[in-house]
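FAQ
Q: What does a multi-component entry look like?
A: The components come first, one per line:
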Amino acid sequence: MPDDDSRLLEAARHGDESSFLALYRHYRTPLFRFAWRLTGSVATAEDVLQECFLALIEGARFDVDRGSLRAYLFGIARNLALKRIRLAERESEEMEDAAADLDPLENLLSTERSEVVARAVQALPPFQREALILFEYEELSLEEIAAIVGIEAGAVKARLHRARETLRRRLAPLMAARA
Amino acid sequence: MKEHDPLNSVLREWETPELSAAVDARVRAAYRAAHRPSLWRRIWSAQVTIPVPVLAAVFLLLLAPVLWLQLRSHAPAPQPATVTPAGEGYMTRIETAGFQPLPDGATRVIRSGGVKQ
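Then the predicted structure of the entire assembly, as tokens:
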């Protein structure tokens, strides 16, 4: 697939629309999902998706020897999403404080379980949240996430561990209800 | 990290919305706008469909003047009139080039052996 991706990208950059659409169809859903889970907004995630592909086509530097196109696209989407998050949200400490007010059991009674999980994940600090989303939902490897985020794989693993521990605590009532 | 952890099945309950088709159209339009071919390239790759009878008529119209000029240059030149007498052995040729009739039709008789002024 990486060879195919390189070939398709080269053709798309030279104006071959079918190659562009092949790449787009292959990556649109995971990138949209990732951006939506990071930002919590459909409109923002759609904008991120569009800008991500335009950045790719309009000459963003991609070197096949330095990683897969998938990781590269997730990296662009991450940067675009984080830029919007910084504009829209306050600092992560405040978000964590807000998360302390979450009562999963209460939410369980009034909202769907999906919404409870979404709120719990979105209440994580941004760096933990993106690591968790990429690992758990997009099934990227620790090395791929490290390349996207620009840190060591060990640091990614530590962020994942902290995120999971926080979620385990917050979602304990939900997990007990399932058991 | 992932095996047999009840947290994983709870995390899977987070559903994502569907991506709307309008986004696909937007992305495609943005790509086309970014890769709009140049005017020369569009002219060079433009195609026109012509029905065969129209093409044949245009071809004949273009060919007609050439054929006409060709036929005209090979037409035979006018030959001077010739008189062939009944007898054999000689031929008299009469050329009418430069012939002019007498202006008043008056005749003069000239006797042999002398010219009268």
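Q: Is there any commentary attached?
A: Sometimes. For this entry: The interface with chain A takes residues 1-2, 6-11, 13-17, 19-20, 23-24, 26-28, 30-32, 34-35, 37 of chain B (CB under 8 Å).
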